Each structure stands twice: as C-alpha cells, then as structure tokens.
Automatic annotation (TrEMBL):
Species this chain originates from: Isoptericola luteus
Residues covered by the Hen1 N-terminal domain: 1-242
Source organism superkingdom: Bacteria
The entry's keywords: Magnesium, Metal-binding, Methyltransferase, RNA-binding, RNA-mediated gene silencing, S-adenosyl-L-methionine, Transferase
Keyword Metal-binding found: yes
Methyltransferase type domain ranges (all copies): 291-384
Pfam families on file: Hen1_L, Methyltransf_12
Record SUPFAM superfamilies: S-adenosyl-L-methionine-dependent methyltransferases
Full protein name: Small RNA 2'-O-methyltransferase
Amino acid sequence: MLLTLTTTHRPATDLGHLLHKHPDRVQELRQSFGTATVFYPEASDERCTVALLVEIDPVRLARSAGRRTPDFSLAKYVNDRSYAASSLLGVALADVFSTARRGRSDARQAVADAPMPLEIRVPVLPCRGGPEIARRVFEPLGWTVTADPIALDDRFPEWGDSRYVSLSLSGDVRLADALNQLHVLLPVLDEAKHYWQSDDEVDKLLRSGEGWLTAHPDRELITRRYLGRSSSLPRVALARLAELDDTTEDALEPPEDEEALQPPARRASLNVQRHEAVLEALRELGARSVIDLGCGPGQFLAKLAAEPSFTKVTGTDVSTRSLQIAARRLHLDTVGDRQAARIDLFQGALTYEDARFAGFDAAVLMEVVEHVDPPRLAALERVVLATARPRAVLVTTPNREYNANYEDLTGMRHPDHRFEWSRAEFESWATRVAGDHGYTVELRGVGDRDPELGTPTQMAVFRRG
C-alpha cells in the first residue's frame, strides 16, 4: 500500500518538522500486520514529498488476527490487501504520524497551525460506490478531488471498471486535519475494517473527526461506513455527533474532558455551570466588550451574543473549521446589520502577538491553557496579559485532584491535554502571573464541590491594577 503527500509550501522541507520524520532518513516502523516505511522521494525548498509504504506480512497478519476479525477466512492468504489501500493503511498512518495528527510541532508551530498547499495521492484504493463517493466525502472538506476508475483488465475494456480508483487530492488544508481526514475516510471508501472493532472505535472516530465531521453534509454516511461492521456503534456515534451539532437550540458542548466521564444526565449540567459561572463573573465586572480566546465551535459565544449588555463579542480560534461552525451557530449569514456589527470572528494563535486581541474589557480562556505545551505557556501569558492587556481575564481549567471521582479515568481527562493542575498548582500559577503583569486574582470553583477534592473545574478571575 502506498500513499504520498506533497507540499509546495516554502520552505517545503518544513514538512519534515511537521511530520517529525527527517527527510534524510528512511524509517521503518513495525506494525502488528507488517512494516510501515517512511521516506522522502524529493526534498527541496520548492517541493517536498513524503511517502508511506505499508507492506503486509501474511504470517504476522495471520498470527495477529483473531477469529472475530473481519475476513478471517482470507486472513491467512495474500490477497488485494497487500496492494490496495485499506483500513490497515489508515491504522499505520495514524500510528506513524501520531504527533503530527495532534497538530504539534515545537520547531514549526505557526506552520502546523495554518493551512498549507497539499497534494495527496493513493494509487490504488478500493472505493465502493465509485468516484462519486470519493468526491462526496472529500470535496466538502476543501479538497479538489480526482478519482480515476481502474479497469478490471486493460486488455478487455468490455469488462468495465473495477471497484478500485486512483485517488488524488489537492488543496490548502492544515496538515493535522488532512491526516485525520485520511485516517477516517480511507476505510470509509473501502467500506470495510480489517481488524476487530471494539467500543473505543467511536472515540477514535470523534477524535479524528474533531472540527470537520460534525458539519460534514454526509456525516451519517461516513459514520455508518466507518463503523459498518457493528450494528450498535453507528447509533452511539451519531447520537454523540448530534450533541455537537447546532441544529437544535439545546445543543450541548462536545463531550470531552469531565463531561465525557459523567452520566449523560449530568453532562449538560456541568457544562451549563461553567458557562453560567463565567457569564456571572463578566456581569460582575461590568464588561461590555468580550473576546473568547480559543472559542472553538462557538457554544459560549452564542450565550454572549444572546445578552444585549455585551456590545462587542469576538471569538478567535486556530481552527478555521471551528470558526465556520461558530459562524453558522451564530447565524452570521442571516442576522441583521446591527447584530452582525456586534460579533466578530477571526483565526489566530494565542502564543503569537496579534493586535486584534487588544482593546477588550474582558478576555475568556475557557478550558484552553491545559491544551498548551508547558514551554509555550509563557508565550500565551505574555500575549494575553502583557500585550493585549484586557481589563479582566477569566481562566477556567480542570482540577486534577477531582479526577479521583472518575472511576473509568486513566491519565488526563482528554488526550490533547498537555498538563492538568492541582488546586495548589493553579493558585501558584495564577498568583505568579497576576504579580508579573500587574493584575490581582481571585480563585473560584465551578461544579459540584467534593469536601476533600474541591470542584471539577477551577476558575481564576484576573483584574488589572
């Protein structure tokens, strides 16, 4: 199986930094079903191409395949899986480029955060439904799609086309988004998974689909084909996607962090409590203009926009897809001129100075700081508190001590968290930051309070001067 990815971003060799794979080296990575090899056929400032070659080891595949594995009867034989892209290529891609899929690059973070020109080619790809299906799933994501059918046999054109296509994609897309889309959509086009699907397949789908799957016009088709071997998992996934959608007035916050660990009946209450706590603090401060830094798909922005006392409401996020969803949630294409003048959305990274962050009564960082790499936290502090310098800053973040109340939790509350603070660590950080930048700080709790472990969310209210 072969996949190539090319960029003409200048310098194009930045691709090696983003993928965490050096262009000068060939790297072989063992998989349970074979070997994944990463190499660069070309690497110059003008153009850089990385190739992922996955070779199936029939013996290793047979030994790793259980009797519940799909296509078990063929598992001990070499068939088209050795040559045609499949879910096994998606598995290898997710493993080999795991850090790049999270959008992390210490050396080139600004490049990782932005769209870049990409060309992707998969020479042989099973595509049940033909080229039209490939266009349906990729074009709404901003790709230009070429899906050329492959003939059954060139010597006998009357036999027609096979179910395989040669797929080419081109577009300006953030690299992390492109990799996550491929991870999901390669098995969707094949409409098969070549390994046993457990309950965590829904979580994998939602993680890889974050920022694009919810708003995809064919999200139901994608979900059902991705989870097609199960009769129950698609229903679970579609129900959770419905929570993320904004087609109903009571749309919920994405089920992440502590919400995902609570019973469904309690998920909304904690989310609502957090929003209400921040809103109440903004009212106490008398804020008229508010910027939501890291606004995501705009759930909290919608609450700000609903209160006339906030005369200027602004949201910023590094994800353009999240901003598109936020714009739809706020109905910016249909609201009147007066309402539209109150609301502004723009793309920005919180670790880089931006004049548009300045001039607000209050800035909100709701469940944001824990997603920042610790070495870059000082940059965020400088950008927000030293340069933008709003009159007030509100920060919420998980309380690590409260994690003991979540029986099924291992590690941190979300796979993208870089750290989680105890109450003492949060207080120490908030006190230092306030002193460094001329603010006072008040600490509060959000959510049901445990007498020993505190509240699930902790909040700092910074006031300037």
